[in-house]
Amino acid sequence: MTTPGVAFIGTYQWQPTTKVPSGLHVKGKLKDENKNDGHNVYLRTKVEGYQWGHLKGVQKKHIKVDKVFYDGAVLKTKKVRMHACIDRGSLRPDHCSPEQLFSRR
């Protein structure tokens, strides 16, 4: 997932309910690609019927992501939407990569 200023390079895996924690396991690097723009980066995730969740990055740095989204909504669904975004403040809309749909087989 990339867009000017932010990139997420990684993998995802659905962990079965027999594994603790079970849910969507996302692993990779969230990168601030434009260190001089003054904006933070983050990942957004959404399960149908629930609000967007955020995984914040760090301005001017790359961070390792190793997170399991394990709330009850993720355990019941077979689809999660995700994209990488730039937080441009309250006066301008955030800029996000195209939305990716991750489906459980």
Written account of the structure:
- With 105 residues, this protein is mostly beta strands.
- The chain has one helix and nine strands; from the N terminus they run ββββββαβββ.
- The protein has one helix at residues 72-76; strands at 2-3, 6-15, 23-32, 40-47, 53-56, 62-69, 79-87, 95-96, 100-103.
- A hairpin with a 5-residue loop joins β4 and β5.
- The chain is globular and about 45 Å long.
Query: Beta fraction of the residues?
Result: over 45%
**Number of separate helices:** 1
| Form type | globular
Order of helices and strands: EEEEEEHEEE
Class of secondary structure makeup: mainly beta
- Radius of gyration over alpha carbons? 14 Å
**Assembly type of the shown chains?**
single chain
Main beta-sheet annotation: 5 strands, antiparallel
Low-confidence stretches: none
Q: Mean of residue pLDDT?
A: 83
Q: What portion of residues is helical?
A: under 10%
The end-to-end distance, rounded to whole angstroms, is: 21 Å
Find the count of extended strands (DSSP E, 2+ residues).
9
